[in-house]
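task queued by scheduler; priority normal; single chain, no ligands, no partner chains; default sampling; output format set to structure tokens
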Amino acid sequence: MNLASTVATSLLLAGAATASAMLLGLPLAAFVGGSRRGWVAWLARALTLAPLAWPPVLLGGVWADLLGVGPAPAPGVMGGFGAHLALVLAWALGLVPLAALGWEFAARGVPHLEADAARALLSPAAAWRTVIGPRARPAVALVALTLLAIAAGDSATPPHFGVETLASQVALEFQTTLDAGRAVLVLAPLSIAAIVVTAFFAGRARAASERATLAPRRGIVPSIAVVIYLVFACFIPAGHLLGCATGGDGFLPGLRRLLPDVVNTLATMLGGGLVGAATTLVATRLQLATPRAPRAIRFAAMLLGMATALCPGLLLGLALTRPLASAPLPDANGWWLGIGLRAAGFSACLTLLTGLPASVRGAQALGLRPWTTARRYLGGEGRPLLLGASLASAAAALREADLWVGAGFAGGETLSVRAAQLLHFGLRAGAAQAMLAVMAAGLVLGLLAAVLTRARRVA
């Protein structure tokens, strides 16, 4: 398959997965969003957010095993259309949580009074077509481009379905030849183009000062969407992994062997969370800068954040490891620097997209120093943002696996890296145990996010 055909196939499959995730994410956001509270809403939100912390290969590996595809690489096992469809569905299941959050963000870009008036006077379809849709369009485009970049940059999942994409082809060539130059040459131009376009829409997608929300629904369509998603993304994979994890020499001995990986995972998540908190403070201070060139400053910061958040893990690892190869640092310097940059990128984008309320601008107008204003805001009204950005950065560190390959197979494997390694040989007991541990860690992060970041919302 030539380069043009591979690129076209990659974009087509990633686009189909993005469209599917956006369609399923809308009713999911309407169900778990808004002002609904209580343990049922928290649990539903936690289960929805948990897959954000899972590496893309997790759901792909489970469903590949359920469909009988087997380990990578296995081209042509399911046939062309069936394999492509299965890959699209696996990608979509992993992208749905981000799509749901994106719909919530898009709705918050509509002024509250306009949204309420449209809902009161117009039908839902007319309200979206004439009022909400035009205001939310930049944010929807931003979310869709983000999902497209994440899917197109995944190099570990497609081989499990016997599908060749640009990212998987480059990753396989690099693992075979260790030729980093070709990998960078092929991936860098497309990645740079995607990041610049995404940052452009991010510059236009800004939350309104009086934020609206998606109206919470208890109708049949959102309920069915939530049930379908949880069954196929959480319950079936967890049940299948539990069945596989009991094989081999037993469940508990296998988990004991994973203890070093658990320690590495906790250290990686803690480091990512701390970097995320520090970046949130810096990004908040940046938004309080003097208004000489606020758009240029914000766009440059958003571009830098997008570059580190959306860059394919393989490319980010290669870009960091080669310049640092001659430095007197440990072998894993590219891995740890990549994790820090990834965490900083996610938290910076989240902070810049959320924006600052008018009360913070008012406090600065009273003469408070910008750093003091930023600290007081994040310690009070902005605490959900600080916690959310920290948890998002920890999740970004947990889900990273491709970066480890690009960083030269550095030591200190996390559970996600171990699961991706073992999945290469099929879904056996060891891989299933590592994947269950990753699912549990993601659920913990989801519960923390659901409980700790529930800011006061406009109903």
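post-processing summary
- The first helix runs from residue 3 to 32.
- Residues 79 and 411 are 37 Å apart (CA to CA).
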